[in-house]
Write a structure and sequence with these properties.
Blueprint lengths: L4 H26 L8 H4 L3 E13 L2 E12 L5 E4 L1 H32 L14 H14 L3 H26 L5 H13 L2
Antiparallel strand pairs: 1-2, 2-3
């Protein structure tokens, strides 16, 4: 995969959006302490704290609200912090972290596929995992019924016996190399 400017910019924008919406606002609602990462930006001269209130407006319904405050360390004044400034600052931090993780993951996978490590090879033929899966599914389809399996097994046993006999003939120089290859190909086609 090539990293062009467009890919990088769109990945960065998507990561920042997800950082604000999904991580800061979404997960921040489930785990409020995650938003403390925004303290240096929204409460630089004080302590950031939360006030959680639980309401029961009617039986069976519970509402929980969380309000964030910045308490100035010099004056002790407590000011409410809005969701937008807190979510934006925390979300942008989480978005940059997400972008770095995605970019490193993409780069690592690009390096892996470029070096050929992404494919695991099978047998002497050098088949990739996908090709092996395709062959396995074709073989499974052929062996799907008992009669099919018995017929294939019988044919393969017969073909193996014929191949062994052909090899013996070639070893005894009773057939030429070209005759051997031609007959071998015919036997293998019948399997």
């Amino acid at each position: 995969m090539k990293f062009n400017a467009s890919t990088i910019i769109w990945t960065l924008l998507w990561s920042l959006f997800m950082g604000v919406t999904a991580i800061s606002i979404g997960f921040g609602a489930l785990f409020p302490s995650m938003n403390l990462i925004s303290k240096p930006f929204v409460c630089p001269r004080g302590e950031m704290s939360e006030d959680e209130k639980v309401y029961n407006p009617y039986p069976g319904k519970t509402i929980t609200t969380i309000t964030w405050y910045c308490t100035d360390s010099q004056s002790g004044e407590k000011a409410e912090i809005g969701l937008f400034p807190m979510a934006m600052s925390a979300g942008l931090i989480y978005g940059f972290v997400l972008f770095i993780v995605i970019f490193v993951w993409l780069w690592f996978n690009a390096q892996r596929s470029a070096s050929g490590l992404s494919n695991t090879y099978y047998g002497a033929k050098g088949l990739s995992t996908l090709e092996k899966q395709e062959q396995d599914s074709l073989r499974d389809a052929q062996y799907s019924s008992h009669e099919n399996f018995a017929e294939l097994h019988s044919r393969s046993k017969d073909s193996m016996a014929r191949l062994n006999e052909l090899q013996d003939l070639r070893a005894a120089n009773m057939v030429s190399e070209s005759e051997y290859e031609k007959k071998r190909t015919e036997i293998l086609k019948n399997i």
